[in-house]
Amino acid sequence: MRILVCxxxxxxxxxxxxxxxxxxxVDSTHLGFTTxxxxxxAVEAAVCLVEGAxxxxxxxxxxxxxxxAEEQLRYAASVGATELVLVPIHGGGSWDxxxxxxxxxxxxxxxxxxxxxxxxxxxxxxSADAGGYQVGVRVAHALDRPxxxxxxxxxxxxxxxxxxxxxxxxxxxxxxxTPAVVGVREGINLPRxxxxxxxxxxxxxxxxxxxxxxxxxGLQRRRLHRPAxxxxxxxMLGGGPDAASAVVDVxxxxxxx
Amino acid sequence: xSGPVLILCEHDxxxxxxxxxxxxxxxxxxxxxxDAPLEAVLVGAEEAVVGALAGRGxxxxxxxxxxxxxxxxxxxxxxxxxxxxEGCGPSAVLALGTDRGNEVMAHxxxxxxxxxxxxxxxxTPAIPWTLTRVQxxxxxxxxxxxxxxxxxxxxxxxxTEPDPPNxxxxxxxxxxxxxxxxxxxxxxxxxxxxxxxxxxxxxxAVVVSGGRGVGSAEGFTVLEDLAGLLSGRVGCSRAVxxxxxxxxxxxxxxxxxxxxxxxxxxxxxxGAVQHWVGAMASxxxxxxxxxxxxxxxxxxxxxVIGDLHEIVPAIAAEIRRRRSG
Lengths: 257, 325
Prior knowledge:
The complex is a heterodimer of chains A (257) and B (325).
Chain A: E1 2-7, E2 9-11, E3 18-19, E4 26-27, E5 33-35, H1 37-52, E6 58-65, H2 70-78, E7 83-88, H3 97-115, E8 120-124, H4 135-142, E9 147-151, E10 153-157, E11 160-167, E12 170-177, E13 180-184, H5 196-204, E14 207-209, E15 219-225, E16 235-239, H6 244-253
Parallel strand pairs in A: 1-6, 1-8, 6-7, 7-14, 8-13, 9-13
Antiparallel strand pairs in A: 2-5, 3-4, 10-11, 11-12
Chain B: E1 5-8, E2 11-12, E3 15-16, H1 20-34, E4 38-43, E5 58-65, H2 74-88, E6 92-96, H3 99-112, E7 116-124, E8 129-135, E9 140-146, E10 152-155, E11 172-177, H4 182-186, E12 191-193, E13 206-210, H5 221-229, E14 233-236, H6 238-242, E15 263-267, H7 273-279, E16 284-289, H8 295-299, E17 302-305, H9 308-324
Parallel strand pairs in B: 1-4, 1-6, 4-5, 5-11, 6-10, 7-10, 13-14, 13-15, 15-16, 16-17
Antiparallel strand pairs in B: 2-3, 7-8, 8-9
């Protein structure tokens, strides 16, 4: 079984993110970077599927990003990825969703021409930073494959993938034939931590570079900025358990008790 | 007059999304600016749903039907929406930035090779269109241009305050029979499991959430108790799910559930960006934390400083005391 996972290097979630002087990008000077959370789970899901497959298989991890995205590829290898591919974005910045999808589609087509088709291509549900909610769908359409997003579980057998996804009204179950594309949601698993052996092995894997220069799409960034902060001080209801009475006064005021 | 502003009418098995009002309002405002009619697209639901759109300023409902389209299917809905777009030449197409809204619009955009701007908070029709959309779940904003003759947009949730309905007439119904490929039909929901009854994290009026400060899975018992008293739900931060204390279905945050309750009680949560963007649509926030400088405390409406393990049970006890009194 062959699975491709597309990941994105993003600033670590939780950090306060600054903006560069030209307002076109985040200020990466003091930022740590990581793999976008949904995609970290997608890598884990792929590794689990291959580990569970009788015939074994390969987990290829692909990213479009700056040369520094090597860090996220090697991390993926330290937790079980077997092949690493970088589509470099030269000159900094990022691609718009259409350009990203075009580049990834070109790369997937080339990888499949060389080593055979992928049974599954996994994406994260959406990237933590840009949150475009579309690159995976666009790649699936370009490759003429079925796509299900928001996966909270993936089962694979006999060329069929069963995907479960949670909604407000329960769990939806999809069954699509492979080759297929699936968007993974955090919560599908708890990603493993790299072992020392994994870390050492990940340093030795060769990263394949695939150069492509996709046509830009119609959505273009002009400026990044921060939402206006509401400068309100919290109302202090007290300290310790003695504040309970003041809290319940507020609950009553709001009509919630 | 310009071509219509089309909005995607989300429903689940014919039950209209409770959030539909947001996109009706956003679509109506854009239609006014463009001097265009507001029209809705309904894929696969019973025609009876059309009545629910009366008094909402919608002039026409385009109902997309196919005998084998029995449930939600992302590709099929995307194809249905694309068919209506090709047939009626809209000025713009809007959906709400829900999981489904974003997904269906992504399928339509892919089919038609058009750009798509998701989770917009502001759009300005011009040549080219300009818009502001959320990044990082709302902690940053991105101003963009959208260079296309047909803007496809999703509007961020909880941004448009809905206008109340008026006494206007029910819209006209126009039915479209679309051709769907075998693959598009196969992409429908095949089965459903365990439909949850009662309040969910996304719909609860009160959410009592715990973070790293709760300390353990057992530590959530006091939060469960308080949530139960307030008919609310328990939520948690990403640190909690990463520690395995609670299931990811309880996680509030950018990669969990985005909530908008009347009151959010955040206990022992520092308020990292990832968490904050999931909770910031709450009408009011009460932070319980040992650290008065914690981000969650600073951004809250109300704060109690101290140990949640003492404070939360005391609040529950006070509610019980007043109820019995």
